[in-house]
Amino acid sequence: MRQSKLFTKSLRSISSEETAINAQLLLRGGFAFKHAAGVYSYLPLGWRVMRRVSDIIRQEMNGIDGQEMFMPALVDRKYLEATDRFKLDVGYDAITKTDKEPGFSLGWTHEEVITAIATHYIASYKDLPFATYQIQTKFRNEPRAKSGLLRGREFMMKDLYSFHTSEEDLNDYYQKVREAYIRVFNRCGLDVFYTLAAGGDFTANTTHEFQVLADVGEDTIYYCQACMLAQNDEVATWKDGEKCSECGGVIRKGNAVEAGNIFPLGTKYSEAMNLTYTDEKGERQHVVMGSYGIGVSRLMAIIVEVYHDERGILWPQAVAPFAAHIITIPGSAKAAQAAEKLEAELTLAGIDVLYDNRDSVSAGEKFADADLIGIPVRLTLSEKSLAAGGVEVKRRGEEETRVVAQAEVLDILRAVVSE
RNA sequence: CGGGCUGUCGUAUAGUGGUAUUAUGCACGAUUCGGGUUCGUGCGAUCCGGGUUCGAUUCCCGGCAGCCCGACCA
Fold this sequence. Notes:
Elements: H1 21-28, E1 32-36, E2 39-42, H2 44-63, E3 66-68, E4 74-76, H3 77-82, E5 92-96, E6 102-106, H4 111-121, E7 130-139, E8 154-164, H5 167-187, E9 193-197, E10 207-213, E11 219-224, E12 229-232, E13 251-266, H6 268-272, E14 276-278, E15 284-286, E16 288-295, H7 296-306, E17 308-309, E18 312-313, E19 324-328, H8 333-348, E20 353-356, H9 363-373, E21 377-381, H10 383-387, E22 391-395, E23 401-404, H11 406-417
Helix pairs in contact: 1-7, 2-5, 2-7
The chain binds one RNA strand of 74 nucleotides through strand 13, strand 16 and helix 9.
């Protein structure tokens, strides 16, 4: 990708009203565009990050036998009335099918939809268990959208639903999801606390959230750094400074952002929507369900909250929009020629490269842009670097640079990408 | 949904009861090239509605929008 052709440009300044770091950096760097509070477009750079995060999620969901599918955003009123969730404030429920009354809600979650589908395909215990998921835009009529991409009126979510013959089987799967979720967040570079919480509108049971410590966080948790367990203050029995009841570590109190959550739904939805199966004895039973969510766009924002410095973002390699950023110091035809060759070589090897080929932009501005955009490896080509033996390599976030021969760059990047 | 603050070129800002400052951006021309180079010329704005007034971007009322706090939040 040539930076001269990149649709977006970085902005020198954004509204002073944006106080959330993720909003400042994602807007300034050209990753996202804000249309209204809580309503964003993902621009080419941001969408690349979203796709990388989504792909990590897909791999982990497929790894626990999740089957990807896609459901409508327009949720039929009859489904939501079956579970008495049509009038909940979080939904945009005024989508009219006729001019008389609302026929749809813009989906804010899809338990009812997947359950409606399941009633057509589940008849026997032999059909269970199974799990399906989707990555889709969700709509929530937030009374107060805020904190950049952390709390949106419209946002990207991965929602997984599982169906079982028994509570035991649900619990086994619940633990598998827990482990898969922790792998997702760790692969995105985040330390998460597995956090006990209340179930809200989804279930009367307690549930679990995956919380990432961050100043911007809306939740207060009591956490143990030793065993990575935590309790949301709405259900907490721990106190700051106490010993962890699980491992004896010290409990701390902190602000955190909820990156995901998992709910043991039991038979709440299967009873409301009459989802049953016939067991080995020929008796009808209600299907036992679980639901599991990760806010994909929120995850991108959390990564920015955790990985940034005063100059910009520091994307972890696993989610970076590009693996490497080639920069030429303007004014040197030799450097530009070498850069084109390097770009071609890396691209051929399957490495995503952004090449800042702009010729009318000063070196300083290119460096400032590179720091803001936050691609993990910067490759600078100039008369100076060529004279010193090739390409100057610098990791974002480190001050150290080193010059290597062009022939070595590919091996270095292969190593970085596989980290 | 309650409370507070705020709406001025694309962005960020100054100021004013008599149509508006500066920077950045953008266009053109020069200059420069290892951390947002420098110079010139040009383009570009008072959220919407009503009221007061000879005259409102300014004052008043209402609306809308944004941010922050609270409530709410899988």
